[in-house]
Design a protein that fits this description.
By secondary structure, the chain is mainly alpha-helical. The chain contains 7 helices and 3 strands. It is elongated.
């Protein structure tokens, strides 16, 4: 049975525009990287909108999430490493989150220069409210894919991530 031709999407239109402008170039990478970029952009935009009512930004949520996943308090440098947010931004975000009562900052007893970060009960409650909402939205983005397709897509994207990390290290 022949497969149905999908309706052109935003990325198809972009690729066709580049093909018309540069007919001698192989623009097929746009089909993959363009879609990854488009999905990422839309997913983050939706997440930003959902977070508006919580009073925190996506970057601040990433800080809270790093702390929520950890089974011990983290140094700011560890949060920076985990989230990929700059050190200055980590400091700014953790100060704001502490001011909101979502993060607690404690000095290390044996070295007062070191500050350890943990979630407060309020911070944990916020993550426990927002994280399932994020997962539900991301699951909805995968509607129409069965478990095997999701696994295959994940495996293929893992290969792309490895290529990017190997060729363009952070």
């Amino acid at each position: 049975m022949p497969s149905e031709t999908p309706q052109p999407d935003y990325v198809d239109r972009v690729r066709l525009g580049w093909t018309a402008r540069y007919p001698d170039l192989d623009v097929r990478p746009i089909d993959v990287i363009g879609r990854i970029t488009r999905i990422g952009s839309l997913a983050l935009t939706y997440f930003d909108r959902e977070l508006e009512g919580s009073g925190i930004s996506r970057s601040e949520f990433e800080v809270l999430s790093a702390l929520a996943r950890s089974d011990h308090p983290l140094r700011a440098s560890e949060v920076t490493s985990i989230t990929g947010i700059s050190g200055a931004s980590t400091t700014k975000h953790t100060e704001r989150l502490a001011g909101l009562g979502l993060v607690e900052r404690k000095r290390l007893v044996r070295d007062g220069r070191v500050v350890l970060l943990t979630l407060t009960d309020e911070g944990r409650a916020l993550v426990e409210k927002e994280f399932p909402r994020r997962l539900a939205r991301e699951k909805q983005m995968l509607d129409g894919l069965d478990d095997d397709e999701i696994q295959a897509l994940s495996d293929l994207l893992r290969k792309v991530v490895r290529n990017v990390e190997n060729h363009y290290p952070a």
